[in-house]
Structure formats: structure tokens, C-alpha cells
Amino acid sequence: MSHTATKWITDIAPETLTHGEFQILFHLCDFHNPSMGCFPSQKYLRDVTGMSNGGLNKALAALEEKRLIRRERKHDAVLKQRLATRYLLGFEIDPTQEPTPLSGDGAIS
């Protein structure tokens, strides 16, 4: 866990998160590497939290809605495979930047 991630998660008010959301956020912070990013698989997150796939995705969506994380999904066009999702933690997200279709969020006009 990076020092920045540790400090950031301790500043979040407990009533902001459900128990499941906190568990996921804790493990994302634990996985965070300041120079490499945060790329845990959903299988890893399910294993360490004991959540179902549906519960995990619901909690991840809630964390995104609360702007505590942002998921960046990428695809390999050559292999036609989804690559590991990068999780940006709240302190890494530029508050002035709007989500775009390229970051996996937002509508395509």
C-alpha cells in the first residue's frame, strides 16, 4: 500500500461507505503502486472480500458514483481481448476532467 493511498483512505468518513465498499477500497489501496497503478483482477477482489461477482460490481459502481474510484477499461484490438482494468483512486482523479468514452465512461455522441 502506498503512503498516499493509506493517508487518503483514512480521511474518508466511515459513514460515506458501506462495509463492502470499504473492503474493496481498502484492497484497492493495498494493491496501489504509485509508479505502476492499480490493476487487481476481479477474481482477486472477490477472493479477498468474499463477495459475489454481482455484489462486487455493484459496490465498484457505487464507489465510482461517489467518485472514490474510476475504472479505465482497455481492449487489445489485435488479440480482441479485454486487458486488465486500471483502478484510479480518488486522489489520482483530476476533478476538472470529465469522463470520456475512451476512459470507459460517458456517452458517445
Jot down its keywords.
109 residues; alpha+beta; Arc Repressor Mutant, subunit A; two-stranded antiparallel ribbon; two-stranded antiparallel sheet; 39% helix; globular; WH-like_DNA-bd_sf; Helix-turn-helix protein; WH_DNA-bd_sf
Could you explain how this protein is built, in words?
This protein has 109 residues and is an alpha+beta fold. The chain has a single domain, classed as Arc Repressor Mutant, subunit A (Orthogonal Bundle), CATH 1.10.10.10. The protein is built from four helices and four strands. The strands form two sheets. A two-stranded antiparallel sheet has the order 1-4. A two-stranded antiparallel ribbon has the order 2-3. Strand 2 and strand 3 form a beta hairpin. The mean pLDDT is 88.
Number of strands: 4
Look at the structure and give the CATH class: Mainly Alpha
Helix content: 25-40%
Q: Please report which band the strand proportion falls in: under 5%, 5-15%, 15-25%, 25-35%, 35-45% or over 45%.
A: 5-15%
Number of domains: 1
- In angstroms, what separates the terminal alpha carbons? 39 Å
Low-confidence stretches: none
Biggest sheet layout? 2 strands, antiparallel
Backbone structural class: alpha+beta
What is this structure, in a nutshell?
It holds the Pfam family HTH_36. By secondary structure, the chain is an alpha+beta fold. It has 4 helices and 4 strands; from the N terminus they run ααααββββ.
What does the secondary structure layout of this molecule look like, with pairings?
Blueprint: H1 3-10, H2 19-31, H3 42-49, H4 53-65, E1 69-72, E2 75-76, E3 81-82, E4 86-89
Antiparallel strand pairs: 1-4, 2-3
Helix pairs in contact: 2-4
InterPro entries: WH-like_DNA-bd_sf, WH_DNA-bd_sf
Protein name: Helix-turn-helix protein
Pfam families: HTH_36
